[in-house]
Amino acid sequence: MNYEIDNLDKQILRLLMQDVTRAYTDIAKELGVSGGTIHVRMKKLNEMGVVKGSQLLVNPAAVGFDICAFIGVFLEKGSEYKDAVEQLKAIPEVVELHYTTGTYSMFAKLICRDTKHLREVLNEKLQAVEGVQRTETLISLEESISRQILL
């Protein structure tokens, strides 16, 4: 696809990043274009992979998940990465996973109800993943910044 993101696309994205439920017609009025223009632009941005869909964000603490932990995962061999990822996908408490350089082979973000739940996930699920040599756990005390990139 030979389409470049322009200033209008960035304005549309900024407005939707602030409030994804905002109607295209409202955005169109604010930006001085037609609702159809917004629809066509969003369709192109989706097709290009700029927009990765939309999802409802739930506050974990509001539904009883009070622990956020980051887990540094050491693999026995780097070649076990793909298999380990597939096994980690089956653990619902793993909400993010990154293949990293540096100390850890992978870095995971887990959301758990409490420290007992975290211990169960670590001991019974994460440590059972084939290829995981050991882990290091960092418990988040507070999420100070959570944001999208600035366009």
UniProtKB/TrEMBL annotation:
Q: Does the keyword Transferase apply?
A: no
In terms of SUPFAM superfamilies, this protein maps to: Dimeric alpha+beta barrel, Winged helix' DNA-binding domain
List UniProt keywords, sorted A-Z.
Answer: DNA-binding, Transcription, Transcription regulation
Q: DNA-binding as a keyword?
A: yes
> Which SMART domains does the entry link to?
HTH_ASNC
Q: Which GO terms describe its biological process?
A: regulation of DNA-templated transcription; response to amino acid
Which top-rank group of organisms is this from? Bacteria
Note the PROSITE patterns from the entry. HTH_ASNC_2 (PS50956)
* Domain HTH asnC-type: start-end pairs: 5-66
Which terms in the GO cellular component ontology are assigned?
Answer: cytosol
Instruction: Provide any one GO MF term from the record.
Output: sequence-specific DNA binding
Q: Which PANTHER family match?
A: LEUCINE-RESPONSIVE REGULATORY PROTEIN, TRANSCRIPTIONAL REGULATOR AZLB
Q: Per its record, how is this protein called by name?
A: AsnC family transcriptional regulator
